[in-house]
Amino acid sequence: MRCPTCGAWSEVKETRLNEASTRRRRACANNHRFNTYEVLPSMLASTRDRQSATRKVKAAVERFKRNTLIVKALLSGSTVTEVAKVHGLTEARIRQVRQTFTDPTNPDTNGIKENPQ
Ligand SMILES: [Zn+2]
């Protein structure tokens, strides 16, 4: 699958199997990271299952969009406290997002300012 950020081919870094779907963590040649979800049509037999799967995917997409905004804000110099306030989240959650979405070996994500306390 191609990277949604730069279009380079991506590879699977991690696969997580859930009851109804499979989540794959991917990274492209430029180290952009993103997740994909696989769902078998047969798993979506009932309307309730389809609605549930749709809700889960939409929620995951919204979380991913929000987390991308959080990481971008941190990379552009905002503090953890500022970003937490903007998104109505705890500072612990912001740190968790940063840890999940950044890789210290990726020069694009270095230099995130810690909240000075
Ligand atoms: Zn990319």
What keyword list fits this structure?
117 residues; alpha+beta; 3-stranded antiparallel β-sheet; 3 strands; globular; disordered C terminus; binds zinc ion
Gross morphology: globular
Helix content: 40-55%
Q: State the total count of DSSP E strands.
A: 3
Distance between the termini: 42 Å
Strand order of the largest sheet: 1-2-3
Write up this protein.
It is a single chain. This protein is α+β, with helices and mostly antiparallel strands and 117 residues long. The chain has two domains: 1-39, no CATH class; 45-117, no CATH class. It is built from three helices and three strands; from the N terminus they run E-E-E-H-H-H. It has helices at 47-75, 80-87, 91-101; strands at residues 10-17, 22-28, 33-38. A three-stranded antiparallel beta sheet has the order 1-2-3, with no helix packed on it. Strand 1 (10-17) and strand 2 (22-28) form a beta hairpin. Helix 1 (47-75) crosses helix 3 (91-101). The chain is globular, with a radius of gyration of 16 Å. Mean pLDDT is 81; it is low at 107-117. Bound molecules: zinc ion. Residues 3, 5-6, 8, 28, 30, 32 line the site of zinc ion.
